[in-house]
Inverse folding.
């Protein structure tokens, strides 16, 4: 078991590309942390630095109490699970799972015991004699997990491990991985571009944007108190609506078309702001804000209403039992629905 600490860590590739700007954070022992952000934001670079597969340009990386900047990946006591599983096609499941242990010269009987235990945990016992080509995608992913587990590492590192699976299997595997990590209590760092995966699996989320940390927080923090317009738009589907507004003398928020919102801007807000409203924080038919519905998307459990409010695009999410038709309706905002951002810094006010 181990905590992971990054102190002023930065990565500049030899071509001058600053893939990870100076960042510091700590992952307590046993925590499941998800690094999330769009493609190219630096999450794999960050993970590879922790794994020892990428040199750290500046700063210190600790696993437990030790600085490991210059420690070989093989000596970091970590196990990595990849998107492509990285299984050996000519080896059986049993040999694939035991591979890392055989390399370390651990006695055969001990390896067999550890592999049996992991296979049982992962429902792979009946597949031990098969080769990877004779397994489904989900089973291959479990073998990759098994290979990580048998090594009893201090730290699991996951690099988009579910992106090759279909949507249904992905949902199932994310529950399995999370449950397994809980059961083993091993610290985990998990990289994904999928905000749903981040929200559902993480104890804490680190949102990255262009090599910079935008926010670190629990899924609930990040969702309910996004620190920037980037986080507000990236976490949540459909994303938070963002509307330009002006701030009056009494901190009242007025949209471009003159619509006055129920929330107030915090003290110190600039004259122009961006107002954020989550699509589900709206009450249809119980307010005085005009909303024009152009398109209704039926999603089964809920309906999405896409249209215009205050001169800008706006989406509303309603439950399946609520009715809506295209055209103009009046809406109200739930208590605490209004988030206010500085349009220049794009940070929450
Ligand atoms: P992500 O995993 O979030 O998609 P990466 O960590 O792979 O992002 O990449 C972050 C940035 O660093 C991107 O701009 C990418 O093009 C760049 N990058 C990645 N690997 C290298 C490399 N070996 N040399 C130069 N730039 C790189």
């Amino acid at each position: 078991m181990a905590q992971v600490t990054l102190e002023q860590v930065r990565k500049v590739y030899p071509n001058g590309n600053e893939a990870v700007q100076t960042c510091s954070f700590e992952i307590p022992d046993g925590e499941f942390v998800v690094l999330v952000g769009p493609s190219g934001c630096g999450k794999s670079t960050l993970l590879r630095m922790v794994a020892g597969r990428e040199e750290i340009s500046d700063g210190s990386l600790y696993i437990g109490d030790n600085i490991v900047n210059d420690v070989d990946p093989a000596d970091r006591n970590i196990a990595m699970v990849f998107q492509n599983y990285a299984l050996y096609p000519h080896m059986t499941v049993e040999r694939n799972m035991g591979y890392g242990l055989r390399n370390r010269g651990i006695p055969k009987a001990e390896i067999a015991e550890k592999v049996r235990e992991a296979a049982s945990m992962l429902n792979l016992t009946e597949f031990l004699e098969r080769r990877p080509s004779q397994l489904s995608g989900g089973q291959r992913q479990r073998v990759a997990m098994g290979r990580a587990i048998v090594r009893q590492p201090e730290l699991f590192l996951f690099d988009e491990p579910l992106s090759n699976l279909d949507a249904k299997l992905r949902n199932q595997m994310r529950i399995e991985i999370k449950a397994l990590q809980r059961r083993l209590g091993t610290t985990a760092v998990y990289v994904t571009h999928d905000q749903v995966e981040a929200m559902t699996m993480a104890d804490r989320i680190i949102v990255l944007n262009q090599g910079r940390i935008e926010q670190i927080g629990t899924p609930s923090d990040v969702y309910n108190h996004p620190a920037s317009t980037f986080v507000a738009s990236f976490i949540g589907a459909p994303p938070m609506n963002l509307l330009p507004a002006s701030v009056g003398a009494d901190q009242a928020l007025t949209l471009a078309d003159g619509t006055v919102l129920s929330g107030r801007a915090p003290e110190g807000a600039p004259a122009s702001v961006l107002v954020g409203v989550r699509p589900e924080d709206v009450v249809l038919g119980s307010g005085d804000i005009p909303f024009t519905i152009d398109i209704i998307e039926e999603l089964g459990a809920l309906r999405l209403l896409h249209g215009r409010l205050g001169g800008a695009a706006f989406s509303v999410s309603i439950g399946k039992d609520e009715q809506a038709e295209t055209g103009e309706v009046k809406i109200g905002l739930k208590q605490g629905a209004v988030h206010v951002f500085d349009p220049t810094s794009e940070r929450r006010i």
